[in-house]
Amino acid sequence: MSQNPPDLRPDLAHARLTQETPRPGQPTIGMVSLGCPKALVDSERILTRLRAEGYAISPDYHGAEAVIVNTCGFLDSAKAESLEAIGEALRENGKVIVTGCLGAEPDYITGAHPRVLAVTGPHQYEQVLDAVHAAVPPAPDPFIDLLPAAGVSLTPRHYSYLKISEGCNHHCKFCIIPDMRGRLVSRPAHAVLREAEKLVEAGVKELLVISQDTSAYGVDIRHAEDRGHRAHITDLARDLGSLGAWVRLHYVYPYPHVRHLIPLMATNSDSGGLILPYLDIPFQHAHPETLKRMARPAAAAKTLDEIAAWRRDCPDITLRSTFIVGYPGETEAEFQTLLDWLDEAQLDRVGCFQYENVAGARANDLPDHVPEEVKQERWERFMEKAQAISEAKLAAKVGQRLEVIVDAVDEEGATCRTKADAPEIDGNLFIDEGFEGLAPGEIVTVEVDEAGEYDLWGRLPAKP
Questions:
Q1: CATH code, domain carrying 124
Q2: Could you report the per-residue pLDDT of 312-354, keeping only the tens digit for each?
Q3: pTM here?
Q4: Which residue ranges make up the annotated binding site?
Q5: Taking every annotated instance into account, which residue ranges of this chain make up the domain MTTase N-terminal (predicted)?
Q6: Structurally, how many domains does the chain consist of?
């Protein structure tokens, strides 16, 4: 069993490729998937297309005739990680195709690694396939190469990311995502729902709804209705909730209409219980001047009122967020405002970044950059407070009975998650006795008997 580290990057999703045994003569492609869950979905779509064309998929470089590296370009540290992964793939394999967010800067990649076969940008699936065809021609066998109905998944079978849109209309000064992925482009609601239906039919028990700005879903297409489904986050959440799986919403900006999602979560509402009582909201900061320099809505006080209203209508709601400390110009007083705001907001799950420059971001040109040692000191103070809040909230759950989903079972016990925990970025609930009959994907009731800073421990109630 693994425990959740407190500084786990909330922008990362970890691919889980399984080893296939290629048939004789079957071309094999390796995949390295870096970055956020949105990039993970792109990797799944590429691999699904390749499997449909008769390629075998390798979880590493060995035995592959070419390797695709899906890169991240969100932070300079992520860019460095991507360049390192490309270099490793070149050393281990030699034939490398680069795609993803960093692919929006082809000269940056080829300047460091001129031997790559091709560079494509994010969600340019056809260009990736063209590059693969040029490097390793397909050789499909229609009688053998069968594609599962749900496509290729890089997550465990019982949960799946569901991407509802691409791009973003915000112009935050610290972010270059709109430059890399473009403006908001929403998928038709009926297409999202059909994908979700297929996933649930294939055994998925939890749908993780993702995009760059989930609450803006459908704005670009004027919330069009097509085939009985309206492209609006409230309507989509209601439709997805009718499928019987857990539905978890990520990257939800706190627009006023978010309050209409809360009745879908509250069990005391007529339409409640359709989606999980969980909101992942990127607040980023709390001081109005800092938010203004970030070019984000400066309404931290109103946000506290919204949070209070959400909790009034849905007492069990879990709120997760991420913050940036050490943003250019952040004074000690502004940082203290953030700590005071966190004290009042009492968020359940919190991640924190130290600000760093990103090539092309407007924040680079702001005055009064914060020294590295001050960023580190503020990060430590922030995380100390967030940890204390988390520890107190989890301690209050001791003695409660909670529904959990089983993620993994080994000889030590079962690793599970409550409705308050998203995979990879939140905590876990561990069962270390009487777990032998459990299997990944099961949803069971557990009695909590111990709490830590980020995780819970529990046991299955005795059978009557």
A1: 3.40.50.12160
A2: 999 999 999 999 999 999 999 999 999 999 999 999 999 998 9
A3: 0.80
A4: 36, 72, 101, 168, 172, 175
A5: 27-137
A6: 3
